## 1
Amino acid sequence: MLKNYRAQNIKEYEMLPNPYWKRINEEILFPEKVLDYNKDIIAEKNFDNVMDVDEELCFKYIKYLELDRNYGLGEKFLRFSEGLSNTGLFIDIEAGDKGNRARIDLNIDSENPILVDHNLIICRENSELDIFINYEDDKKTNGFHNGFTKIYVEKGAKLNLYKIQNYSQEIQHFDSSVIFVDEDAEVNIIDVQLGSKLKGVNYDVGLKGDRSFCDIKNVYLGTDKDKMDFNYDINFLGRNSKGYVESVGALTDKAWKVFRSTENFIKGCKKSEGSAKEYVILLNKDVKSHAIPALFCTEDDVIGDHAASAGQLDGNKMFYLMNRGLDKEAAKILVVESSFVPILEGLPEENMKKTIINLVKDRLGGD
Amino acid sequence: MNNDLLLKIDELKVSIGDRNILKGLNLEINEGETHIIMGPNGAGKSTLGNVLMGHPEYKIDSGNIYFNGEDINGLSVDERAKRGLFLSFQYPEEISGVTVENFLRTSKMAVTGENVPILEFQKQLKEKMDLLQIPEEYKERYLNVGFSGGEKKKNEILQMAILDPKLAILDETDSGLDVDAIKVIYEGIKILKEGKKSFLVITHYNKILDYLAPDFVHILVDGKIVETGSADLANRIEELGYENFKK
Ligand SMILES: Nc1ncnc2c1ncn2[C@@H]1O[C@H](COP(=O)(O)OP(=O)(O)OP(=O)(O)O)[C@@H](O)[C@H]1O
Ligand SMILES: [Mg+2]
């Protein structure tokens, strides 16, 4: 029966139709066959409890793997990772264990064009973990990535998660994360989405415990005909819980973007506070940008707030910068840089910020 | 004084939307000269500065602008900057995420088209900041973000000092400054003049006369220069008001 965890998911996966994302007018096509992925995804770590996924492990962790409902980008994506993953990590940080760090590379190349990961991260009580995930490719492989990560941050624990997705436009990128945050636990995420021609990124957070905390920051870039769908859901259950989402992006050429965020205040989450902010710079009039923020409340005693705004390049700002000798392209890039920096300053290393700014310059300068 | 003609504005008519703002303006500035423009609110002084700099919102209906003998009407804003024009803004923009130092080095390289070695640049920056009495920590701050009105204006002059233009247009750089700051700025400008630099100073105060000896004072009313004179003219405005200069 246990052996069936993957088989059962594959069966469900196969029965599901391909999703059609109407907001960006795109039917998502999955690879017909999932080949082996032979790269080591752990670039660096300073702790032991990391396990390659197998059936036995799935059994051991079944209560963490089976969720009460469908989270993430949608059933097809989830079942795909659960049934057909060709890599992934189970990380289980012991109670009270601090200072844990790992660097993970989810890279794609011509030998490993399909990357399907299924991950479980558990931070037991009062533990601490920092994870850095990089997404790169060889820039010549028509590749596909689908990831599904289940994250449990137990009482008093703290998780920092930094993702830098810098795939080329040959890659399709789908990433779902579901995060449960217990009492006094804290999650901070900075998610940088620079590349990939078609991407879907989804976070679904349950602030279960009293005084649980979650902060998600995202910066993104859309160039050429990139299409992207970002979704951030925060469910407030515990009292005095706090959840924040902030997203800043820039779109140029014919890029399409959908940003959704839902703050869901559930009865009992008294004194909770949440906000979702989105700001996008439209560098070109051919871009399409939708923002769909939503706020649901079954509890009155909360503060919820959301704001979405989109702006053309500010003409006076451009005039100012060009007056100081910067040509139009350089001025444009500076305005984008300037809007990304407040978020990138949250990265723990100064050189990460610099690297990202340079990548942004390269991508915007290339047209 | 060197008498090479630097800027020549010839019967300039400018509109925004369907509003005529400059209505046949003539002005000549030679190398090394300081010109002052005074005039009532809404006369078109900032418009003149913006048009000289090539602001895309303003439309030149007729007339010409020559800079160093070249017709610059078709040039983009940055091309004008590269040729040595500089406008100090009445309301400087805030650019978060970019420090004063990084921005200045970037723009110095953009204007000159040459690499500016970092050590040499830092030395230069320190010199000019000292001259303008700007505390050193300001170079690490984001450009104009959270700066007071006066600090922003000082920062404009700092940028001018670094970029070293041929013609600097200062649009009300002295408004909103306390007396000490005005003194620092104008004494700084005096030193920066270095003989060949020309200035077009837009101001409402004749305080400037205490520091800079202008070669000409012009009165701009309703889109035209209605009177040109020496420094003395600024004092007469003080007494008579603009009413008496309107045509
Ligand atoms: N972008 C614009 N859109 C519409 N009208 C404008 C614009 N810029 C300037 N104007 C108008 O043109 C006229 C001249 O404005 P300008 O800013 O040049 O005046 P000014 O002489 O600098 O005045 P002040 O002494 O108040 O700074 C004003 O009536 C102003 O309202
Ligand atoms: Mg003005």
Note: Chain A has two domains: 2-312, 314-367.
## 2
Amino acid sequence: MFFHITLERNMQLHPRYFGPHLRDKLVSKLMKDVEGTCSGRHGFVVAITGVEDIGKGLIREGTGFVTFPVKYQCVVFRPFKGEILEAVVTMVNKMGFFAEAGPVQIFVSNHLIPDDMEFQSGDVPNYTTSDGSVKIQKDSEVRLKIIGTRVDATEIFCIGTIKDDFLGVTNDPGVAP
Amino acid sequence: MNRRGGDPSPSPAQTAVYNIDSWNRLVRLAARAFYDDITLKGDNAPKAGRGDNRGMAVVVLDALTRRQWVREEDLAKSLKLHSKQLRRTLRFFEEEKLVTRDHRKESAKGAKMFSAAVAATGEGQRTGKEGEEKVKLHTHSYCCLDYAQIYDVVRYRMHRMKKKLKDELDSRNTIQEYICPNCARRYSAFDALQLVSFTDEYFHCENCNGELVAESDKLAAEEMGEGDDNARRRRREKLKDMLQKMEEQLKPLVVQLGRVKDFSIPEFGSLQAWEARASASARANGDANANDPSKSSQGQGYGGTPMPFLGETKVEVALSGIEAKEENAESENKSAGLKVLPPWMVKQGMNLTKEQRGVVKHELNADQVSQSDEKKPKVEVEDEKSVQAR
Ligand SMILES: [Zn+2]
């Protein structure tokens, strides 16, 4: 799920940037540092939408670096248990398959794949129904449901299922659109 | 027979339509299966001391199976329930999608139209209200079972119940665990990324590089059995037990759903449509009173007038029309010289005049003809009535 929230961060800036473009430099450094990172608490920072406030800088002893407290608004993405996501399959093996929804990695184990889909090994390992009408392989798009998330300080990993109504392949990479 | 009191037994017309009973049985079974222990607490329950009102939901549903559209006041009266209490129950069933309701402001005339329609179905109850409701507009609520929706709701409910248990049994929403058969180290699906091997298609132990086994594979689970597993096994047993019990106890309901599947669904339509049809069919049955509220208490005599919505209009008149006919014959046909014998008295070989048989020339008394000649097609009867009315 996406959220628009306000976060705070202490930014350290080298003295060489102190000048008329100090603020611009701070903001671009903030973007570079924060966008695309993951915090266990808030999820992935997708984009910074605005800087609310830059506090007074504090010179660090010995280095000359200055620390600015920066308040900024950003869009974050955090997956939740029970959430339905669309994801792209990245790897298929006998134990299940891996998929990505943006920055989130999801593993769907084979017991959470419908019983009528069987694993086929080969150059392009895949799960296929007995009549061959549905196939999951690398680059397939699937709709899955998150049944568990593990949130580390810097990483979120999800377990998903496609064994439920309206879940599963949403496109077939073999068929040209 | 002709006055239907609080809880009328199924009308003859209902039994005549062979499947309405099956549908009603479905409703009754569902009521007992799912709504038996529902208590609906009022916001300001004055009779808190009297305990709960469990079972009331079932009573209300049962009562609705014996009616079509019914004015909620009338239903409350015949069930001897407080109308607020009934409304709460009906609102609950409306949310549960078992009942459709309709509310409208109506004058005395509108109320009468409903009464007439009710009279036509033989399900009504005289409330003697015609006189009072002269000027004021009152909001009246009506309710009716929605059989089509009930069929779906019951099936969906059972599907959800079963799915919930089965999902847990299949541990569909549990995180898969893996065990290394060599060193008995355990992993969960969350570790999947680290366990992937790029040489084969299995997960490998980080410790000894052994090939991991999914724990749901029974053998592994038993071999590696841990204290934690016992609780899980007990839980599985309990779930299985519940599932089995559920299937046992809901069997009658399932059977009834299957039985009802091939029948056409009783549709009463909207309140207005139903009313219109009811009075139309009443007219077709020669019940001229149906659209004449002042006489509708007589119209009540047609206890067996078939239900309009089910489209069969010829079945039951012979059964219960007799009473009404006699009443009318007495009050209206005193002028006739020779009494017309009711058809059930006329037997083969009786020596009767034409008048007694009711085979009368038209000039004689159109009314008499219509009263006596049950076998004639309804349309014709109606024609004669209208002739008389002019
Ligand atoms: Zn091992």
Note: The domain at 165-251 of chain B is CATH 3.30.40.10 (Herpes Virus-1).
## 3
Amino acid sequence: MNAAIEILMNGLFLGGLYALFGLGLSLIFGVMRIANIAHGELAIAGALALFTLSADWPVSPLLLMPLVCAGAFAFGWLLQAQLLNRVLSPDPMPALLVTFGLSVVMQNAMVGLYGANSRSIDLGAVKTANLTIAGQTIGWLPLGIFLLSLALFGGLHLVLRKTRLGRAVRATSDDAETVALFAIRRRRIFAVAMAVSAACAALAGMLLASRSSITPFSGAERLLIAFEVIVIGGLGSIWASYLGGIALALVHVAGFYFDPASGLLYGHLLLLVFLLIRPQGLAGKAVTR
Amino acid sequence: MTLLQMQKLTARHGDFQALFGIDAHVGKGETVALIGANGAGKTTLLRAIAGLGTREAGQLTFAGQDILAQDPGALARRGIAMVPEGRRLFPSLTVAENLMIGGDVGRRGHWTLPRVLELFSEIAPMAQRPAGLLSGGQQQMVAIGRALMTNPELLLVDEASLGLAPVIVDRVYEALSGLKARGTTIVLVEQDIRRALAASDRFYCMLGGQVSLAGASDGACIEQVSQAYFGENQ
Ligand SMILES: Nc1ncnc2c1ncn2[C@@H]1O[C@H](COP(=O)(O)OP(=O)(O)O)[C@@H](O)[C@H]1O
Ligand SMILES: [Mg+2]
């Protein structure tokens, strides 16, 4: 019984993090209809940047995370405005190839700067601090991450539903040509989406790197998690990513509990099951375009 | 006063030339019909006026100013709005949000969300529903409403009646004549020659990317227009 509660809770907490990571990929796909192959490298780059910053500044890495997110936001914006917006066309292939090239370049640059060693982010005392509710021990960190992810999803939901910018983003996602008639510049919307996506990737990347170690080559693994989140959850709404993140994390946590040698495998199997049986995902609409 | 003026306007889609030197003008407050068979270039012309799409040459002025090189957003802010062919609503946005997208252009004027919902009272109960779920006629009203929300001086309407039941078409044209009464200048593309002539002050008939006939709609000879519409050898 206790094991079941533990798995559920850990799955839920980790799921918020997965969801955040998947959200970044889903946002780009939703708005621009391209898959960003460099999404995993953005996560790794965020973690490595945090590594460098915390070597120089003797404060908790948690405090430096907003700084890295701001950097990732700016990087995402520039990436879209200076590079991806130049290769926009009805054919998704050129943009896909550019993101693939970017992932290779970023990986090589990271190997050059950081070497191939594996490392992880040490969050210090926060990592082991916990509280006890109804006899159940809960780590502050996973709980905090879960609440943060909920808050970020809630915030994004409100921005998308209640603001003029959010309306423009959703309209662009529906019909990127017609928005021009209403003075909405799709290139700017795309840049906003990529900036938010990169910030999500960096944040998730830093937090994931505090749970398990990374190397500059870990990007592909991370990308796979994001893909699994959006295939399992489905496209078309940010809460679909949330559902997908939690489902995937539950399977990972349960997998590691019962079969520590191959926990991730069960996530891949879940991906296969969804691709075969419910390709639109848990909450997604069937993609027709 | 002339609001819109075209001189020797040409446009091409890639290597394909779709407009061959259009000379036309639209006076302030006028309703002008563009008629012509499929492929005549009507949509290309409307899109060129709205700043969408093709590579153009020649002269295009709006309220006396050259707008040939302006982007659609700038033209929307200056008062050119389009109801596109096929309506092109944002299907996942609600009806109200679709209308608000027009309002977001930022031109103040008569048209506000409540007023548009009053004009098209049949879509008011659906204001909070995704626009993609509406019927074709309701979607057409949203598309017109969305353009009105920009408070345009010039309204371009591309085949508003396509695929709609006759009652709905009457409803749409009734709304357009109401707009004319408010002083809005309208250019409308319509396949149905009689309806186009009935709704307009003047017409241009297009054939193969050129104006084949132009004149006053009142008393236009249907046979002559039909010939201009289909070409000489039919
Ligand atoms: N995007 C495009 N690319 C290439 N050719 C086009 C495109 N759009 C329209 N055309 C061609 O331009 C001509 C005029 O089309 P259009 O303006 O849509 O005519 P209409 O609206 O009068 O039916 C047609 O021959 C059409 O095939
Ligand atoms: Mg047409």
Note: The longest helix of chain B spans residues 166-181.
## 4
Amino acid sequence: MLLLGMSALPVLAADGKNTTTNAMPPGAASCSPCHGKQGEGQPTTAVPRLAGLNAQYLERQLAGFKDGTRKNRIMMMIASDLSDGEKKALATYYANMATTKAETAPADAAVIAAGAKLAATGDWSKDLPGCAQCHGAAGLGVGADFPRLAGQWAVYIEKALRSWKSGDRKTDPMGVMANIAGKLTDDQIKSVAAYYESLPVAAPAHASETKP
Amino acid sequence: MTRHPVAPSIAAAAVLVLATTGLVGYARATGPATPATGATPEQPPAQKTEAVRPSYTPPSDSDIPSGPFGDMIRLGEAIFHDTQHNAKGFVGNDLQCSNCHIDRGRQPNSAPLGAAYLLYPAYRTKNAHVNTFQERLQGCFRYSMNGKAPPLNDKVLVALESYAYFLAKGGPTGVVVKGQGYPKLKAPDQPADYDRGAKAYAQHCSLCHGADGAGQKSADGQTVFPPLWGARSFNWGAGMASINNAAGFIKANMPLGLGGSLTDQEAWDIATYMDSQERPQDPRFVDSVAETRKRFHDEPTSKYGLVVNGVLLGEKSPPSGTISAAD
């Protein structure tokens, strides 16, 4: 069962102050059949959770679908119909959602542990850094370029990593993720995806300053 | 056999001679607290020496023994990887040891810990006595971590020493092994240039370290991309503030995961740009910036005390050794 989201309620900023209500932009209704009313995505069909991801990151992905640097037929059609203003409004809307994570059956503990180790320390025999070195120790992401992975659906994470391997996704700055994904074995992809799905989504990425 | 460390900084030919004839007693030219700056003289092409160096592979995590000694090794690894939390009282910036010694001190060409351990104790001309490995580690806290040195035999140093000893297992004592230190790059074709460095920095580095070099934190306030300059980075006395060290580190290890992708020229230019920015004061500061330069930085590899872009570097440095009470 999906937990009730909070998008209709006033959003609490990091400092605890009430900010304005996260008003639903007109286009959002067409997204919810797939991404869910609260931006929660779908655990089994590789539709990503959008709630709480960085707004600029989401906007950049929508631009990527449109210009073909990220290949996905459905999202390409959808993104092509959106004006720049609509993209921004939708990205901000989803970024401001503090939707909690629905409970799913946890993956095998040993698989999660293997993923946790890879995420923390990488595999330098292949010059592979740990995921945490760019996505943060808790997988919460950094700024506008390094998205949160914590609480994202494993099926989607696996698909994303494969899309870099196959060249279907070229949205990554400096080609960093293509370099990473190219070094991952199928087992590593499975375990690291299971690990990130198991993590709590915690605070929305925008809630805190990204600069010291 | 007694330990007779071969300075990583001596000429290729000398290494050959030393390695093959077992000549002993060579004074280690670079070392602990050695400023950094100019600590490592210009090198001949590194490949020649690299080719004759023996290699060894540090043991893996699973080889750490159980029992009290194993616990100490594990503590050392934890301190090295998360210095911020595990050696808090000695750290005055946002760095971890493993930020500059990649893969928790295992990665070749990022001054791996095991290879360093093999070279100590060592005589240093600078302070004219034989330095223990712990003394070397003290320098790391004072300069690279902009903090204060743990007292000898403090648990922090014992743990780090145990971890280094463990990583050195199977390596030849007193011998410079493959991948020790940072690579010594050939002098650049064109003199290193600040402006070219600034452009290359924007292209290859600012995505992670920020245009202002201050690094970036995650939503939970943890540093993910460490600061390269400014108040929360290594201080002017650190090895990384020396352009030759920085160029070698950058060439081999940056951008993260894409080590070796920059040209030598780019590495020199970017290192020059990075090491021409303000950072915490040299803790050995005496009298004036000019005097401090004369004593510790009088090398082409240090910009301390020189005017760059109208700024006298060292004059407005934030204080050194700022151990944060918060976080």
Note: Residues 305 and 313 of chain B are 5 Å apart (CA to CA).
